[in-house]
């Protein structure tokens, strides 16, 4: 009687139907297996399966045509295999044509196309002028000056001119126009020298 109660569990009536209370059909509805490839479980991954074949039946005797159809040893599955052979015959006849000789070829010119070489310069005569038109020389063009006050496109610096001395209206014509030595006042020394002390009584 003590086995009816397990811990805090007490016997009670189930809330819904329990499958353990009903009898099933037994192993009739078993789960499909996972081995082999027949009736394999569709929910599981199936590994690759290999089959073993039986022994082949022996070949019937006398199936070859016999030595009547002898195959040469030089005949293979890819064709006939024999050593190269040369045939000797007469010289073929042909028409004789005028062909260039060995002296007509310059092999020296082909070196620059085959081997690397330094650049070579050659000297030749002056070529004839393609056109005989007389073109103007450098002296025919007038270049604007860049010196002086009247320049075209450059900034001119201040320029000074020199002329001869004119005698019109000079003091040399009338000496009365020039002031004499007494016309200038005497400048005291205290103006441009240190002033000396002065005493008064």
From TrEMBL:
A GO CC term assigned to this protein in UniProt: cytoskeleton
Record InterPro entries: CIMAP, SHIPPO-rpt
A Pfam family this chain is assigned to: SHIPPO-rpt
Name recorded for this polypeptide: ODF3A protein
């Amino acid at each position: 009687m003590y086995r009816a109660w397990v811990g805090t569990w007490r016997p009670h009536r189930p809330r819904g139907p329990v499958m353990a209370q009903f009898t099933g059909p037994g192993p009739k509805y078993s789960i499909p297996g996972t081995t082999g490839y027949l009736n394999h479980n569709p929910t599981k991954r199936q590994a690759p399966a290999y089959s073993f074949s039986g022994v082949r039946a022996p070949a019937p005797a006398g199936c070859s045509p016999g030595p009547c159809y002898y195959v040469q040893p030089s005949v293979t599955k890819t064709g006939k295999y024999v050593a190269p052979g040369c045939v000797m015959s007469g010289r073929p006849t042909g028409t004789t044509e005028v062909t260039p000789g060995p002296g007509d070829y310059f092999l020296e010119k082909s070196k620059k196309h085959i081997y690397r070489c330094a650049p070579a310069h050659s000297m030749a005569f002056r070529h004839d002028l393609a056109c005989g038109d007389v073109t103007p020389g450098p002296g025919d063009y007038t270049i604007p000056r860049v010196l002086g006050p009247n320049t075209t496109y450059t900034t001119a610096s201040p320029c000074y001119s020199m002329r001869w001395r004119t005698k019109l209206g000079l003091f040399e014509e009338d000496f009365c126009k020039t002031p004499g030595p007494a016309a200038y006042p005497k400048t005291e020394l205290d103006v441009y020298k240190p002033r000396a002390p002065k005493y008064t009584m």
